[in-house]
Amino acid sequence: MKSTSASFQKHLKSFRIFTSVIVPLSLLESALTKKGGGVLLLTRVSFRTLVRCMALGLVIAGLFTSVALGQTKRKVIIDQDAAGPGGTDMQSILTLINSPDTDVLGITVLTGDAWREEEIQHTLRLLEIIGRTDIPVLPGAVFPLVNSKEYIAKWETLYGKVLYQGAWNFAKGYAVHGPYEIPPMPEGSPTAKASTEDAAHFMVRMVHQYPHEVTVYAAGPMTDLALAIALDPHFPELTKELVVMGGSINPNTDDPEFNLTPRREFNFWMDPEASHAVLHAHWPRFVLTIVDISVKTRMEKSLIEQIAKSPTPAAQYVAKYAQANYLWDELAAVAWLDPCFITKRQKLYIDVEVDHGASYGDTLAWAPGQQPGMGEVLVDVQKDLDKEKFYKEYVDLLTRPTPSAHPASGKEAPRNAN
To answer: Does 73-399 carry CATH code 3.90.850.10?
Structure first.
């Protein structure tokens, strides 16, 4: 059959480009002949050959795609103040582990919502329950760089009470306690052990091992990151990006924690000097989930009911221990996995007040061109979201089978741990 249609010529051109990479060009040319002024003739036999070439090309392309997908898991370090069981800290860890697109290199744990020692135990137990004890848990900072519970007690006599101080003034189900006490664990005590390597050294080691490939997801105070920067000033620039839940600018809420102190957010406030250091470091990309967007979300009863329908260990853990609260850390985690449901964002210069007056630890923000120009970095600040789309993705992540899960034993040696 003779064909001179423009459509045929167009598709043939595209196919030539495709097959020049996937299929040897000689195979294609053997199926095509030129006659009379360059008009292409496609015989019945050559057409079959062409179809075979295309089929072969598609198969090979599929193989290349599969290989490529296998190589594109997103490496992430989870830096978390992992209070538990359940709650925003643990649920954010689960969303990241349960994603088929992530390679969780390790979980670094520091004091924040609870003290580090008990948080480590909750994290280890979570990994046992979901069958991922191959992920190392690394001890981070117990105390901030400068700030302290004792100092804030004196600060409050001058400037008033700070409602939420994490481990320093809050506990659920037991009394507020000291840094090295571990209260009874409702989910059971772990047999797995934390790594002997500390969080800051681990972070530095990982970005040197995988330069420009590692995302650091930080959803607690900034102390571990500041210590890593102190160890190696090149640490920030060797990461792929930094994703943070922290800061507050102007949240629309009647929550007493924020309605009279809208710039005070716990993760930045607990260690202001560390936050200041992190916000002046040279990250390739810095994404920030602030209170303003977080308070638009909620761990609603309907979400817990949906999650409870799944028989997976992760889902049953969440259903048993979930708390009615904002989805602080989960929002930051899921938005990193799929930012499509973030409907509004703004580029801002962000800092934290380190003057020890009334605004100590408050979030500072400037539009481009209005910043002081004292080393602040431009941050991608999330401002609004498609809540229903977020909820759907969140539930999907918590109810799917955990990738690479194994029977929990608590005896497996953590990967990359010393």
So the answer is: no
